[in-house]
Design goal:
mainly alpha; two-stranded antiparallel ribbon; 3 helices; 2 strands; about 35% helix; about 5% strand; globular
């Protein structure tokens, strides 16, 4: 999520984006992340974890109605596209663990 109309880096071979389903401020995102304990996670030590956290975030924002229905499926489709490209390593999941 970005709040400014920046273009995606020309060095990014892949990216995923979707429109918001409703207006949502940075403060609202922060408060939701704290309320849902998204700041309570541990990486697995093998360089993996961002994908687990990001997938959970997309799912949460879809559930909350911030992202449109089907966002998680669309995101995971992009993940599989990148995973199929032998030039890029996409770790197996789950890579991070949420804790209470």
């Amino acid at each position: 999520m970005i709040s400014k109309p920046f273009a995606v880096s020309s060095a990014a071979p892949y990216h995923w984006e979707t429109k918001l389903a409703k207006d949502y401020t940075t403060t609202q995102v922060y408060n939701l992340l704290v309320a849902k304990k998204f700041n309570h996670y541990l990486y697995n030590g093998t360089g993996s974890g961002c994908l687990t956290w990001t997938t959970a975030l997309v799912e949460l924002l879809e559930t909350e109605g911030v992202l449109p229905k089907g966002s998680k499926a669309s995101y995971l489709k992009k993940v599989e596209e990148v995973r199929a490209d032998p030039k890029y390593w996409v770790p197996a999941e789950p890579g991070a663990k949420f804790y209470p």
